[in-house]
Each structure stands twice: as structure tokens, then as C-alpha cells.
Amino acid sequence: MEFTSDDARAHFDAVRDVLDGAVVGLDFDGTLSPMVDDPEAARLHPGAPGAMLELAEAVRAVAVITGRPARQAIAMGDLDALGNAMLDRGAELFVLGQYGNERWSATEQRIRSPRPPAGLASFERELPSVLRKAGAADAYVEEKGLAVAVHTRRMQDPAGALQRLTGPLSELAERHHLTLEPGRNVIEVRSGQMHKGHALRAFVAEQEATGVVFGGDDLGDVEAFEAVRALRADGLPGLVVCSASTEQPSLVELADVVVDGPAGVVELLTALVARGPAPAG
Ligand SMILES: [Mg+2]
Fold this sequence. Notes:
CATH architecture of the largest domain: 3-Layer(aba) Sandwich
Bound molecules: magnesium ion
Number of domains: 2
CATH superfamily of the largest domain: HAD superfamily/HAD-like
Number of helices: 9
Number of strands: 12
Strand content: 15-25%
Largest sheet: 8 strands, mixed
Structural class: alpha/beta
């Protein structure tokens, strides 16, 4: 893992000083689970459950904050079992799904979610013809309840297809007052009311956190990165962790620590909890 500056190392130390009152938000894909070609085959990095369990004991609360529906992240990450293990140790796990629109906790064991955003149903009705016109009729459309994701990952030219789709989809989204969220070989369309930055800020406030850590790897994490930096400017110790990928170098500029994918995230979480001086790097 690599600190991006001396200040960044100081932020790491500042968070560790208030760790027992801090909250930790972690993205799922590419941060806790290695990227795979089939999004449905994503699983936690083998070191993640152990590291999260140790972490949960040391902090106020841990939340997985993801664009995926909560139900899906819970199933893929076996987060039910992890949450129960945390409860056994007096700690709590939250899953904030669909960018914070859905909320699950190990204690409550049920997902709370609002109604789908207005405009989503009509967007979905018009989507097939827009895909056809953009030469992307075989794109995989994932209905997420509160959002729709158009995946090009399994197409012949994923990057080219994504490029062809961006214009037409943003036009269609705009017409229905929805927001476009580009990712790796995927475009998500959802209500503009919610993003990971809002979700993280609300979580910090609700937990009365004395510090905040967020780790992410993709464009959908930018608002959460910015939220940590804004909270820090207001005096709350905070640390931004970028799970590095070759695809999204722009996130590195906002990060304090850059780690090597989910394996590096596990290492970072372990270092946060470990006693003794901060690791070199
Ligand atoms: Mg991700």
C-alpha cells in the first residue's frame, strides 16, 4: 500500500487515534471482491471476512456501500454469516445497497427500501429500442428495482459498445429525470437523489462517528471520496482508500492510500486495527 503524501500518512494516524468511534464504508466489487468477467460470480476476497470481523470489533460500525441491490451483495458476500459473527462479538454490519437507497443490518436482518424513482418504468419501456438503434441490442440489461444497469461486458467490443450507448442513454435518462452512472463496461441509470456520498454522510451522522474511512475503486465511489474529504475539512478525521485498478486512475487523485485491489484493502484494514507504528509505504 502506498500513501499519496505525508499528509495522507497523518490522516491514517488521525483515524487510528479515534478508531473506536469511527465508521468504515467499503464498496463491494473491486474493493472487497476481485473483479470478474461475470458480475454474478463476484465473491469476497478470501481474506476479507476475517479482516472485516477484526475491524468491526475495533470500530463503531462497518458498512458495505454498493451499487448492487443489498440482497445480491449479501448473498454473494455471504454477509449474513459475517454479520452474525460480528454480532457474536458485539459488533454490527450494515449493507447500504443501490447507493444507499436500501439498508440492511445484521441486527434487523431485513432490507428496507423506498419506492422506485419516478420515470424508471417508462425509461425501461423505451430502453430496448434505444439499444437496438445504438447497435447494442445484445447488451445485458439488469433490472435492479431502483435502477437499471446496462452491461456491455459480455459483448464483442465492450468499450466500443459502451461508447455508442453513452449518448443515447444519457438522453433517455435525462428525459425521465434520471441520472447516468458510468462504470466499467456498465452504465447505470437511477434516481439522482441518492449516491454513495449521501449514504456515507448519513451513516456518519447516524452513528455519531468520530472518524470515517471509505474504500472504493470506481466512478460510483467518487462522491463518497469527496464526502470524506469534505468531512475532514470540517474537522472529522478521515481516510480515503483507493483500491487501484488500471481502469480508473482518476480516483487515485482523491485518495490518501492506494492499495493493490481487494488483497491490498484487506492489508490496509488489518494495518488500521494493528497496534504499533503505521506501516511503511
Ligand atoms: Mg467497485
